[in-house]
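Model: You mentioned two targets. I'll fold them one after the other.
Researcher: Yes, keep them separate.
Model: Target one:
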Amino acid sequence: MQRGFSKIVRRILVGLAFGAVVLVSFSLYANLSDLKASIAKFNYMLLPVLFALTLGNYFFRFTKWHYYLRVIGVKLSIPDSMAVFFSGLVMVITPAKMGELLKAYLVKRIDGSQISKTAPVVVAERLTDFWALVILSLAGIFQYAVKKAWAVIIVVVVLLVLFWILVSWRGLMFWFVGKFERSKFELLRKVGTKLKVAYDSAYQLVRFGPTLWATILSLFAWLFECIGLYLVIRALGLNVPVSGAIFIYAFSTITGAISMLPGGLGMTEVSMSALLKNLTNLAKADSVAATLIIRAVTLWFAVLLGAAVLVLNSKRFAPAVAELEAETS
């Protein structure tokens, strides 16, 4: 095994173990025999369509990733950019998705770009995902009038707006970075230099034009997976309005993301199954079955696809993986 990959394998195994705990817990919650009966109703002929929708999500998110790299002046070839993006998918089950910073290390390995320059791209990706998911949540939030959902949406929007104001306030950010650059301690001066590079990239990414275009791409990306949930429900012989499925998937993804749990594991499933059961009157077993199926063809498919791409590029990417592991140990 290439140097550094053993730790990534362990992280994946921890995520898989956590996922197994979620699966067992939900099976017990739904009653295993009832859950089996619900899953038995699923029309497996729909699986190719579901995987195609998930790949559509990845296509638009990759387009956003590649676009963001161009915004900050990093010009990878499309094959290299795809190898980096898809390799990063394996890290979605790390806490707060911080493992996705692997992409910055992989870019450095390919063209030498500073990690502090490309790391803000990963943050900008997640922030525009949040914007898109908030917008999609509005598709059903008026219909269902969930008070707690409104509170979460308002908090997320306020935090996003505050972040954009903060990053856009160049005077304040230059003053903050300057404090580090002028420090009498060499370590803090080095940190200041990296912060300046990171801020230059972040400022380019949060401008109105890039943010608008990236959010539009994210809207299409996440809409594909929302439609996937709708089709899963229909494939189980059940009926939920499209707007309801979009709201439930988008809002559950938001709650999973802000939980900071690996891949949103546990929180996303709890939120999604509870909303399906309480807002659309699905039986407990049916709501859990729909949740587990859509998570299998989205989250776990992403992990498997990312692992496959990373393994295919293991010789080239092993030094970057080792560097990431060394710096985060």
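Model: Target two:
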Amino acid sequence: MKSITFMKIIKSQFCEWLITQNRLQESGFKEWLFKPGMLFNDMTKWWQDGTLRLRPHEGVDFCCGINGEDDVVYLLAGANIPALYAGKVVRIFPDFLGQSIMVAHDYEKKGRQLTSIYAHTKPRPGLKVGQKVKAGDLLAMIATGRQNGIKAHLHLSTCWAAESQMTQIDWQTVNDKQAAWLSNPMDYLK
């Protein structure tokens, strides 16, 4: 069985925004907690002990962390979600716990554009496709978790999306190599 992974908060401006925008520092928040199944390409469902996913996990799930007294603290439904980098909102589409927001960033590689996807959200009022955002801007709030054991959390994915496919990408096509090349979000958090 895989062990629990901790990530120090000092490695990422995005994580700092997630902490400060949700006032987690008030509880002495010191590091993120990732259970088996919460990290990129993991095959385990973290909300169903030991059950396997149909395909590898497409991103990273931010759900909980450890405070200064080693207590587990959770992000709750309604928690604020900042933008990873500056960019433009290119798509808002439904997912099984809320809505997903795709933001295209100003980084290109081999004809593809770096894109971040924030899943299980409730977009902030007034957020629209085509809108430009700055790094750290409020995009959305975390949607409510399900009663079947899925706690409220932010699912963050990153990919190199084909510009011609960007408006078509959803959770069925994000694994299609013609549409997007998934990448580990942790690589963009450092």
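Researcher: Noted. Anything on target two?
Model: Residues 123 and 140 are 4 Å apart (CA to CA).
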